[in-house]
Write a structure and sequence with these properties.
The chain is of the alpha/beta class and about 350 residues long. It contains eleven helices and 13 strands.
């Protein structure tokens, strides 16, 4: 097996590549190592992959997916059994400030990936979508079987565009594609621009944290190990056409082309205030909170209906938010050399 992992120095891409190496799979990793957040963190992840006990199975290329000639060269030199496409410009709020970065990476870069998969007969493309595609949908839990035509962030719009672009390639060229709508992924080696990382750093430095929607909004926080297990299960089973697809009443989750989208989450939303209480508990410190209204582009709640993924891939998340937050904080203290965590029993608040 040889698998291409784009965004291999990113949070999710790193964990996926590491798990594949543990399974003795050949991995080609791509990343542009941009400075959206701390490049040293990305380089540390990459270093771990390059020092892995199966490091002979890992090949890395510093490439931007918007660079089509460089991408084509890598595809021509390899015969990939699957492409797991996780490279993207992430972040809801940054998409308001710099939409062009999202077009370049999430639109131009994505069509480059599609074209390379098409011309090199890749058996399966698995790519990262996002819960942000649900936008103004207020019916919880979010289901793939409902239409998602009203994203409220530009980031969400680019991810929805990816799903539609993938469908066109699946329909036109028979390219099997599967999109995974991630729900607030967290865990060790996480992104510094996400809440758990930002809150931990600020609390340890005795700095205030901004708590939007007064801490009342809920997120379906999903631990990285559960995400990786889902990705690899999906990667092993290429999408197929649905023979029961009704073109008069089309199901948004399926198609008469080899195309699928799935939610991948914990299916157990947690209020942000509770999440902060867990961080405080394990750090043994109280946060200074700036209570603020909901930000533009944000939604008050996310909640993944994972029935389709469970049915088709036996997906079942196993990590509680209590254990997941503790695992992140253990990693954070080790990586940054901070003071030891307060001894606490992992369990319910």
């Amino acid at each position: 097996m040889k698998i291409l992992v784009t965004g291999a120095a990113g949070f999710i891409g790193y964990h996926v590549a590491e798990k594949l190496l543990q399974q003795n799979v050949q991995v080609v990793g791509l990343d542009n190592l941009n400075n959206y957040y701390d490049v040293a963190l990305k380089e540390s992840r990459l270093s771990n992959l390059q020092k892995h006990k199966n490091k002979q199975n890992f090949e890395f290329h510093k490439v931007d997916i918007s660079d089509l000639p460089a991408l084509e060269n890598i595809f021509k030199r390899n015969n990939f059994d699957c492409v797991i496409h996780l490279a993207a410009q992430a972040g809801v709020r940054y998409s308001i400030e710099n939409p062009h970065a999202y077009v370049q990476s999430n639109i131009v870069g994505f069509v480059n990936i599609l074209e390379c998969c098409r011309h090199n007969q890749v058996p399966h493309l698995v790519y990262a979508s996002s819960s942000s595609v649900y936008g103004l949908n207020a019916t919880l839990p979010f289901s793939e079987n409902i239409a998602v035509n009203h994203p409220i962030s530009f980031y969400g719009a680019t991810k929805r565009a990816n799903e539609i672009m993938a469908h066109s390639y699946s329909s036109l060229y028979g390219l099997p594609t599967t999109g995974l709508r991630f729900f607030t992924v967290y865990g060790p080696w996480g992104r510094p621009d996400m809440a758990l990382f930002k809150f931990t750093k600020a609390i340890l430095e005795d700095k205030p944290i901004d708590v939007f929607n007064y801490g009342k909004h809920k997120r379906d926080f999903t631990y990285i190990d559960d995400i990786v297990a889902g990705i690899l299960a999906v990667a092993a089973k290429p999408a197929t056409a649905s023979h029961n697809f009704d073109t008069q009443q089309p199901d948004p989750a399926t198609s008469n082309a080899p195309w699928r989208v799935y939610n991948i989450g914990n299916s157990d939303p947690v209020e942000l205030a509770t999440y902060i209480e867990l961080i405080e508990k394990y750090l043994g410190k109280t946060a200074q909170k700036n209570l603020l209204p909901l930000q533009p582009g944000d939604v008050p709640g996310t909640f993944a209906d994972i029935n389709n993924l469970a049915r088709d891939f036996n997906y079942q998340p196993t990590t509680s938010v209590q254990n997941g937050v503790k695992a992140f904080l253990d990693w954070y203290m080790d990586y940054y050399g901070a003071a030891c965590l307060q001894p606490q029993t992992v369990g319910s608040l």
